[in-house]
Amino acid sequence: MKTRKLLVxxxxxxxxxxxxxxxxxxxxxxxxxxxxxGDNKGALVGVAMPTKVSERWIKDGDxxxxxxxxxGYKVDLEYGDNKIPTQVQQISNMITKGAKVLIIAxxxxxxLSDQLDSAAKAGIKVISYDRLLTGNKNVDYYVSFDNEKVxxxxxxxxxxxxxxxxxxxxxxxxxxxKTIELFAGSPDDNNATFFFNGAMETLKPFIDxxxxxxxxxxxxxxxxxxxxxDPATAKARMQNLIASTYSNGTKLDGVLSPYDGISxxxxxxxxxxxxxxxxxxIITGQDAxxxxxxxxxxxxxxxxxxxxxxxLADQSVVMADDLLTGKTPETNDDKTYNNKVKVVPTFLFQxxxxxxxxxKKVLIDSGYYxxxxxx
Length: 375
Ligand code: BGC
Fold this sequence. Notes:
alpha/beta; Rossmann fold; four-stranded parallel β-sheet; six-stranded parallel β-sheet; single chain
């Protein structure tokens, strides 16, 4: 029996690697032990990431590359520097170099149609990584977090931080009225509207009953969006809001921020206008980036959303490996993510809210950060 196992293992080296490396994340496909992916052993996988400006994408890129290399694949990992033509060129090069699978976290989800068409013609499979590729049928799979839930969690933590709801989610009786401002992410990123819609659904009852007012009156996505998630753009908008709405002494109690980099821009605008650390509004975020977790520990930012990039990276690699070894990748949501042309089969993970109260348990005990990372 032992010998047979060994032989099967040798015959299906890719599969054996794949199973050994599988951390038990609930995979459906177990394979039959056949070496259907033999041709793709050591194949090239192209990994396109949007930017190094944000720490999360560096973690994503590193984790995807390592997991692919651990399975014996060659990797071309590229960062697009938040420039669409750069990413277009990088993906074209990956296709030319003979990549068999592309794992893409886009800068603008709708800007890669020509590359997706070329990939399909060459038989290359495409996995949309965290950000959905839109407007093209040649997107095979999507792996992400529950993006609407991220928005719900951001708004829920804002309401909790403001003392409008208690930790069980119930409205607190007799709470004073609160004034907030809203920020959203980049309009060319499909996730941004999911975050915003999830947050607005959660805030709506409290806006409708007058508990919460958006001081500037800017409540439409188009008014509050931040092109390319740019912290400087968010800072400038916050400076304008302070001047237009809060320079008369109106108290700003909270700011819905969709991403830690934007939160840093918002905090910098507020501090520049004289807000001291203990007088800052309740500010949310996303990605649990080290600088923002430190800010949470110091009591400036209130919350962030932790999305374990290790899980996301591993799942994208499990999917790539399945595709390269003739298996059907497991999905757990085949209805939510319509990319305007088709519903893309999706594997979603769940986000976690992080505040000063639970960061140790969530971020340090899980090994995502060491104590020293957050000093
Ligand atoms: C990601 C977020 C990230 C944002 C800015 C979104 O697509 O889902 O995690 O904060 O991009 O990089």
